[in-house]
Design goal:
Rossmann fold; 2 domains; 8-stranded mixed sheet; 3-stranded mixed sheet; 32% helix; elongated
């Protein structure tokens, strides 16, 4: 039978990631609640910093341990330790702290993939452009920064999660691309209900606390629109380039112009526009049908004073049951070749 004491016993020896003291020593396990009829346990855990990659790793360990003593589902809330506890245990940060990807000496080129609205295929473009760059011998990372609507792990057929080595998170390597996503740290596709400041902390952790190694390009799949995460990226990465994704539909292009205008106002260079779902081509007749209209990508590129990097038709990838990646096009697929051409243009431009 699941009890409060069992939960305390199983969690007490876990070390808080910043102070390196156990949760038991810090009295950091609070507000334990058990719903016997649903076999559900919820706990509140106190940590030194919230909204970090370390918190997500701690969350995974807490969930696994509580399940090991009989819970079927687990709910966790995090809050910060009282200042007097922090003052007692806090250690001075090392002077030579590694600033990771945000270090001034870092040579990685950052490319944000943005759109004005959802549903235009921005994540599909992010995934396939990252894979196309990797196929051309580039060292590529991909951050699924669409924190509310993360989809990259499923799109790439990723079934394993990152591991921790020391105090660093090792990204998942898939199809030659190093991937990190909020989806790795959320149990059972749970919704994210964080506020803006916590999202900024999470994004900062993805830059600073993940062991990316040497990268030529780091792509960021941004949430649609011009919200908190996009603003944080513009603040953290002043040298970030941007690619805007739209469909040919006039409304999609009109809304995408807002994301482009935001990039220009924050002095981010727009590499180009990718028009997705440009047309449907019948396999029987070869006739092209412009399902969402025509000209949206070209009009948007003119407005933003950039170029159309490529036009992608509506077409499903060929699924490989042995190495399933449901949204990735093979290199010799018609769309795979278009993505290869786009990747070459990006390399030449960036």
């Amino acid at each position: 039978m699941l009890t409060e004491q069992k939960i305390i016993d199983v969690l007490s020896d876990i070390k808080e990631p910043f102070l390196h003291k156990t949760l038991g020593e810090l009295n950091a396990i609070t507000e334990i609640k058990i719903k016997e009829e649903k076999n559900h346990a919820s706990v509140k855990i106190l940590v030194a910093k919230t909204g970090t990659a370390e918190q997500l790793q701690l969350q995974t360990e807490v969930v696994n341990r509580i399940k090991s003593v009989g819970a079927e589902t687990v709910g966790i809330r995090f809050s910060e330790l009282p200042e007097e506890v922090l003052a007692q245990f806090r250690q001075a940060a090392p002077e030579n702290e590694d600033k990771g990807l945000l270090s001034p000496n870092n040579k990685t080129k950052f490319i944000a993939i943005a759109s004005g609205k959802g549903g235009v295929g921005k994540s599909t473009v992010s995934v396939n452009l990252a894979v196309a760059l990797a196929r051309q011998g580039k060292k590529v990372g991909l951050i699924d920064a669409d924190i509310y609507g993360f989809s990259v792990p499923d799109m790439m057929g990723i079934t394993k999660r990152p591991v921790v080595r020391g105090e660093r998170i090792i990204p998942v390597d898939r199809l030659g691309v190093k991937v990190i996503s909020m989806g790795f740290f959320v149990e059972d596709n749970a919704p994210i209900i964080w506020r803006g400041p916590m999202l900024g902390k999470m994004l900062n952790s993805f830059f600073n606390e993940v062991e990316w190694g040497e990268l030529d390009y780091l792509l960021l799949d941004l949430p649609p629109g011009t919200g908190d995460v996009a603003l944080d990226v513009h603040t953290m990465l002043p040298s970030c380039k941007e690619i805007i994704v739209t469909t040919p539909h006039p409304t999609a292009a009109f809304v995408a112009a807002r994301a482009g205008a935001m990039a220009l106002r924050t002095e981010h260079e727009i590499v180009g526009v990718i028009e997705n779902m440009s047309y449907f081509e019948s396999k029987v007749t070869g006739e092209k049908e412009y399902v969402f209209g025509r000209g949206g990508g070209e009009k948007l590129a003119d407005e933003l004073r950039t170029e159309v990097l490529g036009q992608l038709p509506l077409q499903q990838p060929d699924w490989n049951d042995d190495d399933f990646a449901p949204s990735v096009y093979e290199e010799d697929h018609h769309l795979g070749k278009i993505y290869s051409d786009i990747a070459k243009k990006v390399v030449e431009t960036v």
